[in-house]
Amino acid sequence: MNLLLHCRWALAYLLFAHFSMDAQVLGDLKMAVIRVSFPTENYPGVSGNGEYLYTAKRIECGDYTIDPPPHDRNYFRSHLEAADNYFRSVSYNKFGLDLNNSAIYPLDNESSYLINKPMNYYNEINQDEFHEKRITELLRDAIIAAFEEDQINFNQFDLITVIHPGVGQDFNLPFLDPTPEDIPSTYVDKNMVNTHLGGPITIGDAAIPHGIIIPETQNHLFYDETLFDQLGSPCDIQYSITGTLALMMGFAAGLPPLWDLESGLSGVGVFGLMDQGSNNGRGIIPAPPDAWTRTYAGWETPAEINYNDLVNIISGEATQIAKIPIGKDEYFLIENRNNWFRDGVSIDSARFVVWQKTNIYPEFINVLIDSMGVEKNEYGVITDVPNYDWGLPASGLLIWHIDEQKIRDGIDSFSINADRKHRGIDLEEADGAQDIGYVSNLFTDPSSGYWGDMWFAENQEYFRANADGSMDFSSFTHPNTKSNSGANSGINISNISKAGESISFTLSSSYDMAFLKDENKSILFQWDVDGDGDLDFIGEGDSLWWGDDIDMQNSFRSVDGKYLQVCVVQNSSRTSLAVMQDIGNDKIIEWFEFDADINNFVKVWDYKLAGHTGKTFFYADGIEKEIHYFASFIHRLINKDGVIELEEYSNKSVAYYSNNNPTVIIYNGIEIEGGEKIGGEFGESLIVDLDLDGALDIVVREYLNAIKGFDLQLNFKNGFPTNGTPDGPLYAIDLLEDEKPEIIYQTSNGKVKILNHEGKTLEELFLGENSQLRSLGIYEGHNSIITNNRVIKFKKDDGKRVNEWIHREGSPDHSRFLLLPEPFPGNESILFDKSLTYAYPNPSYGEVVIFRVQVGTAESIKINIFDIAGFPVQTLKKSMKIENSPISDDTSNHLPGVEEIKWDISNVESGIYLARVVVSKDGNSEEKIINVGIIK
């Protein structure tokens, strides 16, 4: 029989507390404990009679009973000590209770404050709509009763805890609940108090904004002796209130709940305090908070680890949480949790060995006291446990997938883990199944977590879902290291070792990467600095530097301002650099030339342009040795002798070039000329031949986050527009072996996205929040993505250096130049591509129908439209002439591309129509029939 208890803390009430994302749960908490009782009577739906258990009561569970009576002041003082020891242990003594200045009221040992309402009033059956209000009233009624009798100065306390007789309505027992009116353990937050009481509870000089409510015990056996007849192992449902108290204290102190409050289903299960882990070890050994919660509380600081490192994580020690970034808001936290009380032996394994030898399965509490040396105090309470991982189901790594955006969205409404399919704090379960929080029909219910969820080499549950060999965690395992959007992170955690006090693994990447080791340097771009035919690196950081390889830095200028811009000089006989940087309110402009004798750059001249700051476009002429600088609508020439101001310009002089012909004109870097045809305002842009048809294409980022691709007629390319969130330049190069260039950009959340020539996302790379896409290049013979701190290699370089847009301005020399490739074989000989010729929208609900024809060498298009009976409806014609382009007056040749012809259907009735598309050239023609539906 499955005896796993499901925590169902009745906290669906708690909806609007406001937590900070930088909480610091530190220091010593002063607590006032108020014991209340109710009129003594037989309450059918409640455990007990409204009064505390003051008389010793034996239950048939051997020599040891969890939390035995009398439940007096000494008993509750013992539980404060237990909670204090727990928090000091898991916080490394950064948080706990101030026991000297905490107090339990009334001061008499066996006493309580009588509340003159029946006990079942506060959780009355069939009164669900009043439960939140009445549980809030219980906090108020308890405080008033205590003040009226003892005039307590509540200003001297940080937190009020109300204790009531009986057990809490906090567990699902494996049968119909006989006491549904037990009071739920609850954190009554300030919004509940404000909503139901009109503001803080004002008593004397104190204003009390919140408090917690817990029962005197969680041991049902004190109240229902029939459990011995109904359960095979009734002693296993003895629980201590230590875990309940620790959970509620954590909640009140600012640790967010990590289960789904609406359904009660687990979020992190038994692996964290702020879920079912509060009940670990029968409530005597509540689990430490998960790695994120300990970090959030300010108790630990994760260490970001490097790729290709062998990592060792020691259990039970501070600063032993490993952090692996995925993206701007996503990362993994890895911790080692060990439940051994001696080498290789846990509570469960010790119980199993006894069963093997004696055929008797010993009670948990017996093993805890007899074999582990944990002692009860004189009041029957276990107050200190050496290791709070003892209550876990196994030893091994816990790998947490953290999504900070999801946490920010859900922290105030206590819904961090409400969405089972996208949790803010998600355990990567090693068995490959997402069990936690999902109802299961398995004999051993894994819905709150079990030993198979932990990562250790001996875990055979892992190998049920993965190939034999070492225990690995990557983009190709179950579970995997992909982001929450499903993108590959490239993170490989391999060779996870056996369980132990120290567990090791290796962090690597599935991408072939080279890393910049000097954290004070960063990469800008590549250029052949020394003229040896190989691309070198040029970078910034604490200095400007260049190097033959990624880790060979030759510094030549310190970096001490902002808005640094570096441009390779065009048409220079040797490598020269133009450098601009803002210093104060001025722009410092410098000219450097490479000196082969010293194998480094030397400064030739500099100039201060007063009153100019910010990034702008410029390029440097190596023949005239002058810099062309465009700012404030003035074109300036700058050289060592000063500045010459040229004509005022409208920014239309900033042109892109392909094969030495100006092709695309950008207006103010914002709007494409002719943009009234396509709408939108645009930022970053590039030119490239997307589909290798020999014609130039334009790719731009709209400010509303669409990526738009056009041909020279400003018709959308196939697949465009496509959604995207670029946060910077667009680049293009052939990375993935299909000959066509991919579009590469970085998103606002740090992902590097790779799109194909039709705008489809092929890959997303998560390189860490500190990794910034800088350029593209060639490294060790491979086309590569270059970030500030690494190079990611892809396909082998073919050496052609065509159809690449590798820099914000096309090239590090700011040339805005694209060398076009030869047309893809076949495009230049066909009249049109039938597979890419269609009508849209289709069907049309009253919109204009557009026939899109992918033209090769055709000179004319004719579209004859018929109704379903074969009667002619309309004829559309178009002759392809280059003057249709808003970009160029060149009419010498017609290049392949898209032609779009509109059909006005305003006077056309609903129905099915046949469009016969005929394209022609020199007496030759080809055709395609397109069915078009019109619905009005």
Question: Could you explain how this protein is built, in words?
Answer:
The chain has 10 helices and 55 strands. The protein is mainly beta. It has 5 domains: 1-17 and 26-254, no CATH class; 261-339 and 387-510, no CATH class; 520-648; 656-818, no CATH class; 832-934, Immunoglobulin-like, CATH 2.60.40. Helix 1 crosses helix 5 and helix 2 (128-150) crosses helix 3. The longest helix has 23 residues, at 128-150. The two termini are 63 Å apart. The model is unreliable at 1-18, 664-671, 673-677 and 883-893 (pLDDT under 50).
Short overview:
The protein has 936 residues and is mainly beta. Helix content is 11%, strand content 33%.
The global form is: elongated
Stretches where pLDDT is under 50 for at least 5 consecutive residues are 1-18, 664-671, 673-677, 883-893
- Helix amount, in percent? 10-25%
Mean pLDDT comes to: 87
Question: What topology emerges from the helices and strands here?
Answer:
Elements: E1 6-7, E2 27-29, E3 31-37, H1 73-90, E4 95-97, E5 103-105, E6 113-114, H2 128-150, E7 159-164, E8 171-172, E9 186-188, H3 190-197, E10 201-203, E11 206-208, E12 211-215, H4 227-230, H5 241-253, H6 291-296, E13 303-304, E14 309-314, E15 322-325, E16 330-337, H7 347-358, H8 364-370, E17 396-403, H9 404-410, E18 425-427, H10 460-465, E19 491-494, E20 502-509, E21 512-515, E22 521-527, E23 536-541, E24 543-547, E25 554-558, E26 562-568, E27 576-583, E28 586-595, E29 600-610, E30 617-621, E31 626-631, E32 634-639, E33 642-648, E34 655-658, E35 661-667, E36 671-672, E37 682-688, E38 697-702, E39 706-710, E40 722-723, E41 731-733, E42 742-746, E43 751-755, E44 761-766, E45 773-779, E46 782-787, E47 790-796, E48 817-818, E49 832-840, E50 849-855, E51 860-867, E52 872-879, E53 897-903, E54 911-921, E55 924-934
Parallel strand pairs: 2-4, 3-5, 3-6, 3-7, 7-12, 13-15, 34-48
Antiparallel strand pairs: 1-8, 9-12, 10-11, 14-20, 15-16, 16-17, 17-18, 19-20, 21-47, 22-23, 23-24, 24-25, 26-27, 27-28, 28-29, 30-31, 31-32, 32-33, 34-35, 35-36, 37-38, 38-39, 39-40, 41-42, 42-43, 43-44, 45-46, 46-47, 49-50, 50-53, 51-52, 51-54, 54-55
